[in-house]
Specification:
Helix content is 62%, strand content 0%. The protein is mainly α.
């Protein structure tokens, strides 16, 4: 999606006046309903994010739904700036919900205060990002908006309009001022309406009354009531009027700080100080449309033609030490005088607002001077103001030199650091700060990590060059938060934003911690929807878990405790990951074979059976079915895995057949002891028990015969079938697997031969038992190679016993009839 597509409603000419508090609805959302807070004090805005570590669930319950809601907005939105608006709406809604929750609970929740504060900071930051990057994208791609204006000759306003269109520093500085003023308005709530309740329409009425009645002690008061009287006469007002004046001036500055000059003027008029309202009017740039208009009808003139004189007066009033500090700050803000303005700036936002306001004022005056539009009276302003070399970086350098401990502490607060980087467009510095925070001693609040993650994703969507390793760390940290917050259904979507190899490792590490079968299936379904490589992930999960096994592949020749340990059970259960999707059945076969090889070496047959029982019976059929109709045959590795699986199954069947044979042999019916009495009834009973015994014994012998044949067939199929030998030699070489299979042959083939010999000897099939020697010595099967010398010697000794028994029966040593 091109950057141009993000600009569905380009704002056109955004700036009509310099250093004016004009609002731009298409850039900043001015919907502040519901943000006025009556339950939290002003001190709440200075809360540290440490408040989020409390145990009070009120705040977390109200804001916890932001995790899925932010992801839903991220996935559904196709326009970046619509997405930013969604983020703002989500934060705004949760702030209102937190306020409602606290009011409804009837108690002050420390956690709710902390969460509300951090969400308010996040909302402010999203608004700043929306404002600045809408302008930056538009400036880069909106050539139709940034049109060149003709050089103006008779209008201050046209000069400044052109400055704002052509100079992105001035334009974006004004956006920062607008943003900071909107924050101030949010905090005011209904303040602008409430402060007028005490307004009086008579100017200094208490002093006027004292002078009229010539009250005792009034000789020290002013004798005249013009606006300059207290300063000119060096005499005070009545205390009540002085207090009202001080409060009014503080309220006026609060309104001007919020960009509400018209409301400030209205308040002045209601308080009987219309002259003061007039002093707040002179900032407007002069523009006479009749000079360039072809119309015969005169149009009204805009602005102040004597703005230079007005501004010089404002500057001198701001320097007047006898005036109230808020009155000085008011005129300092209007004239660009930074020194009287800073003493009333109590927060980081206030100081940034003051510096950017002064910077814009200075740059505007310089532009007017260079264009020849400046009045001669402008020379009354100090040259350091008119020639100041202001930059955005210089603003924040000045902030670092502040003497306010509170402002200095706020400078290092997380969101203010982010806001500074956004204003300066210092992405490298921002990501360095992210890296420091992630490696810091304290864990970051969950909502801060959520914001950091979505900020990184926003920059990626814009195509900005970022430090990939830090972005990866941010998303991985947020994934950890989601898991901790039990938001595991959101994990796949965020992991899919990582590089492919990193995403595979990260999601595999997440799946390792999940044991519930249904949740495993759900996680893989979500991973598939998110475009992750599910096959690679599940394979890595299994390999990682199995790789933690530090025990070596060691052959145990003695019988061990056959009980399955907890660690072994974890290995067995991990196979479930590969069985969820039938497409991974070949991989499941390979990994289960690897587990069973180790269990076979340790003679843990119960564990081997447990692994084998995990695999669906149609696994082999499913593997071949997936390759039906393909142009290429089944890969050699898969075919060898199938053969190994069948070899292990054959051994388990042989082991079961031998156990069945052993149990049947040991369950032979016992001949009943006859009762020694001559009574007829006793003899009849003895005969009946003997017949019953003979019948049971006959059935037992038949069973022995059947079971003996079954054992012989299965073991013969193993001995003659190249057990644990690959059928395809063109597979990728796996040295460790080949060695393990050879080791298992050396353990189990001699044992199977011994079992078969035992069955044949117990069944009196000594001649067939002696034929085992031919089988072992055969060059076709080369079974003698897997026999250790000691075991081969013992095996031959047992064959000798069969030969002796045959000789005792009148046969030769091999069981053939002797010739007469």
């Amino acid at each position: 999606m091109s950057a141009r597509s993000h600009l569905r409603n380009p704002p056109g000419s955004l700036f009509r006046q310099a250093v004016t508090p004009r609002r731009y609805p298409d850039v900043l959302s001015m919907n502040t309903s519901g943000l006025a807070d009556t339950s939290f004090t002003d001190d709440d805005t200075n809360l540290s994010s440490d408040l989020l570590n409390g145990d009070d669930p009120l705040g977390e319950a109200a804001a916890g739904s932001l995790f899925p809601e932010f992801l839903a907005s991220f996935l559904k939105s196709s326009d970046l700036f619509d997405l930013l608006k969604d983020y703002q709406d989500l934060c705004r809604g949760k702030i209102a919900a937190l306020q409602h929750a606290v009011l409804g609970s009837g108690r002050r929740s420390k956690t709710a205060v902390g969460v509300k504060w951090i969400l308010q900071q996040e909302l402010n930051t999203w608004r700043l990002i929306n404002s600045l990057y809408r302008d930056r994208v538009q400036a880069e791609f909106g050539d139709d908006v940034m049109t060149d204006l003709p050089v103006p000759s008779e209008s201050e306003r046209l000069v400044v309009d052109q400055l704002f269109q052509c100079d992105k520093v001035v334009r974006q500085s004004q956006l920062v001022v607008d943003w900071l003023e909107s924050i101030a308005r949010d905090r005011m709530g209904h303040f602008a309406d409430n402060i007028e309740c005490y307004a009086k329409n008579v100017y200094w009425e208490n002093t006027l009354h004292a002078l009229k009645v010539r009250r005792t002690g009034s000789a020290a008061l002013v004798t005249e009531l013009d606006p300059d009287a207290p300063v000119r006469l060096q005499r005070p007002l009545v205390d009540l009027d002085r207090e009202d004046d001080n409060r009014l001036l503080q309220d006026l500055f609060t309104l001007i700080r919020a960009g509400m000059i018209e409301q400030a003027q209205r308040l002045c008029k209601r308080c009987g100080q219309a002259w003061r309202a007039a002093t707040l009017e002179g900032w407007k740039l002069y523009h006479d449309p009749n000079i360039t208009s072809d119309s015969l009808r005169l149009q009204p003139v805009e602005g102040n033609p004597q703005r230079g004189i007005w501004k010089a007066c404002c500057w001198r009033m701001a320097e007047e030490q006898q005036l109230n500090r808020y009155e000085r700050a008011i005129y300092a803000a209007l004239s660009g005088n930074i020194k009287p303005l800073l003493p009333v700036c109590e927060s980081w936002e206030d100081c940034v607002w003051a510096h950017f306001k002064v910077m814009i004022d200075s740059l505007v005056e310089q532009e007017l001077m260079s264009s020849g539009m400046a009045h001669q009276d402008a020379d009354a302003l100090p040259r350091e103001h008119l020639e100041a070399n202001w930059t955005m970086n210089k603003v924040f350098e000045e902030l670092q030199a502040t003497e306010s401990k509170k402002v200095m502490e706020e400078t290092t607060e997380h969101y203010h650091v982010i806001q500074k980087a956004v204003i300066l467009e210092d992405l490298d510095g921002l990501l360095e700060d992210f890296s420091d925070w992630l490696t810091g001693p304290k864990p970051l609040p969950p909502h801060l990590l959520r914001f950091m993650t979505h900020l990184v994703l926003f920059y990626h969507s814009l195509g900005m060059a970022l430090k990939e390793d830090v972005c990866v760390d941010v998303i991985k940290s947020y994934v950890g938060v989601l898991i901790k917050e039990d938001q595991w259904e959101l994990v796949a979507s965020y992991v899919s934003q990582l590089p492919v190899d990193v995403a595979t490792v990260q999601y595999a590490s997440v799946l390792e911690t999940i044991s519930q079968s249904e949740r495993r299936k759900r996680c893989l379904h979500l991973a598939n929807d998110a475009g992750l490589d599910v096959a690679a992930i599940t394979k890595l999960v299994v390999e990682t878990v199995l790789g933690r096994d530090n025990t070596e592949f060691t052959l145990h020749t003695h019988t061990l405790d056959n009980a399955t340990t907890q660690e072994e059970l974890e290995k067995i259960d991990i196979i479930d990951w590969l069985l969820i999707d039938p497409a991974h059945r070949a991989e499941a076969l390979k990994q289960s074979n690897a587990i069973m090889r180790k269990f076979l070496a340790a003679q843990k047959l119960d564990a081997v059976k447990a692994v084998f029982s995990k695999l669906p019976e149609n696994s082999v059929t499913e593997i071949y079915r997936q390759w039906e109709g393909q142009d290429t045959p089944l890969p050699a590795e898969d075919e060898n895995a199938v053969r190994e699986h069948l070899c292990i199954r054959a051994y388990l069947e042989a082991h079961k057949a031998f156990n069945d044979w052993t149990n049947h042999i040991n369950s032979a019916p016992q001949r009943p002891d006859p009762a020694h009495q001559d009574k007829f009834t006793v003899r009849v009973a003895n005969e009946m028990r003997e017949k019953e015994y003979q019948s049971e014994y006959a059935r037992w012998e038949v069973g022995v015969g059947h079971l003996t044949v079954k054992v012989k067939e299965i073991i013969h199929s193993i001995l003659f079938g190249a057990w644990m030998v690959d059928s395809r030699q063109d597979a990728l070489e796996d040295v460790w697997r080949s060695r393990q299979m050879a080791t298992l042959r050396s353990l189990y083939l001699p044992r199977l031969c011994a079992l078969l010999l035992h069955v044949l000897q117990r069944s009196n099939q000594h001649q067939e038992a002696l034929r085992l020697a031919d089988i072992i010595a055969s060059d076709q099967h080369r079974l003698y190679e897997v026999f250790p010398k000691k075991e081969l010697s013992q095996f031959l000794q047992r064959l000798r016993d069969s030969s002796l028994l045959l000789l005792d029966d009148g046969l030769d040593a091999l069981g053939y009839q002797l010739k007469p």
